[in-house]
Write a structure and sequence with these properties.
The protein is mainly β and 250 residues long. Helix content is 11%, strand content 34%. It has two domains: 147 residues, M1 Pyruvate Kinase, Domain 3, CATH 2.40.33; 89 residues, no CATH class. The strands form four sheets. The chain has a seven-stranded mixed barrel.
Length: 250
């Protein structure tokens, strides 16, 4: 059976905004282009930021839910990111420009709790991506599973809470968990499905307000005895993926 890709999302700066795409080129051994390309290292992190590191080293929505309310637009030609937040307005800067960091941190400061870790500097993992997984991953989400969680909650639920890359529809809820260890073709790319994605408190924060307003983790636990949503895929064959493309288990 096949499903159809319904949405593509990337997150240029880890935990700081997301934007939609209609098409992307996937390359073997790499994350989605420009996804989690940068991350904000915090001042309590032992990590030096010179390579990939675990998520606890960075400013993330698990610890700072207000970050969930940030949206992003990336100009690839200039590597300029424009961030938007309903309380802060917008701010454009190039994360690779060390001289622009102070102004960005000042823009962000009003939504950061003073008693928590503060941003230290912006780091990059390049095409490797500063993914939550310890390998360059592309996250794949099932709209049928999403609707099941929303039904369990008894309310509509924003898909942006899951911070996924590729969304598909047309297959059974939770069918994606049966793909672990198998390959899937998405558009003209082929991915090896590696792991289920264990979820954190970031999912409880509203992607518009940045306020924690929904017990998503509780719904997963009471409904299905786990905290997992979506799967990590590793690109093993280059290819293009676009909305409307098929996803097929090989």
């Amino acid at each position: 059976m096949t499903g159809l890709i319904t949405a593509l999302w990337r997150h240029p700066i880890k935990s700081l905004g997301r934007e939609t795409l209609t098409r992307t080129q996937l390359s073997a051994g790499q994350a989605m282009p420009w996804d989690r390309h940068w991350a904000v290292l915090h001042d309590l992190a032992p990590h030096d930021g010179n390579a990939w590191g675990p998520c606890q080293n960075f400013m993330i929505g698990t610890r700072v839910p207000s970050l969930a309310g940030v949206w992003a637009t990336l100009d690839e030609a200039t590597a300029t990111v424009t961030l938007r937040h309903q309380r802060l307005g917008s701010h454009s800067f190039c994360p690779d420009d060390a001289g622009a960091t102070a102004a960005f941190f000042a823009w962000l400061a009003p939504i950061l709790p003073e008693d928590r870790a503060q941003p230290r500097r912006i780091v990059s993992a390049g095409s490797r991506g500063m993914t939550d997984s310890d390998f360059p991953s592309v996250s794949i989400m099932n709209m049928s599973s999403h609707r099941s969680v929303a039904q369990r909650l008894g309310r509509s639920l924003e898909p942006e809470r899951w911070r996924g890359n590729l969304w598909f529809d047309g297959l059974a809820p939770w069918e994606e968990f049966d793909w672990i260890g198998r390959r899937v073709r998405i558009g003209s790319a082929v991915l090896q499905i590696r792991d289920r994605i264990e979820r954190c408190m970031h999912t409880t924060a509203n992607p518009v307000t940045g306020l924690r307003d929904t017990d998503v983790l509780g719904a997963l636990e009471t409904g299905w005895d786990h905290r997992d949503f979506g799967v990590y895929g590793e690109v093993i064959e280059d290819g293009t993926v676009a909305t409307g493309d098929q996803i097929e288990v090989l």
